[in-house]
Specification:
The complex is a heterodimer.
Chain A lengths: L2 E6 L3 H14 L4 H21 L3 E9 L2 E8 L22 H7 L3 E7 L2 E8 L3
Antiparallel strand pairs in A: 1-2, 2-3, 3-5, 4-5
Chain B lengths: L3 E5 L4 E10 L4 H15 L3 E12 L1 H16 L3 E5 L3 H9 L12
Parallel strand pairs in B: 2-3, 3-4
Antiparallel strand pairs in B: 1-2
Helix pairs in contact in B: 1-2
Chain lengths: ~120, ~100
Amino acid sequence: MMFSRPFSHESLREVRHDVQRRAERHGLTGVALYRFVVAVNEITTNAVQHGGGQGRLEMWTSGDRVHCRVTDQGPGLPPGYEIRPPSSRAQSGRGLWIASQGCDAFEVRRADGVTTVTLTGGPG
Amino acid sequence: MEEVSVDERADGSLRIVLRGEIDFNNAASVIEVIRGVVARQRPEHVVVDLGEVTFLDSSGLAVLVNAMKAAEAVGAAYRVEQPNLKVTDQLRITGLLEPFGLAET
């Protein structure tokens, strides 16, 4: 069953708690659950910060996997942007790295003015 | 602010206790509190206690990095204590265990 909701700055925490509850109900626990929730939260936060202030989250399951798709109308990643480990002294720039490291699959697409990030997590 | 409290010790150390969820919503105000108290007290040691932290996002990690820089600016030693297993995993992924004095032996 697909879960779908819009989000903005005010609802970032609420969305994160929604994702946590649903992933937990689907069997994710411990570090695997935390990594997935952190990953999705980075993408929704990016959408609020850089993607026009709002977006939409969709969440569904397949087998023991959980999937989230986050869409926003922002400019997306700069051309040629590489997701790489941040310097330990950097002020920022850790978000996409921890998001990409926290899931089994991580994909960013840009088409027709919409940026779509799809994340897949599992029981670990 | 309930997410952060500060305890100045007689031995010249400053203990900063963070609690709950540190994220994009509250990170800016938490770091403002930490920067202010470190610059004012000029302690010899700054310790950040994460024992009661349940969630950190990349803004929360940036709070810890900024606290480290604030400590360095006054010549204080810096370390992070008591991250739970999930936060420890997150610090490992971002290469922050060693800079925070949490390197595994």
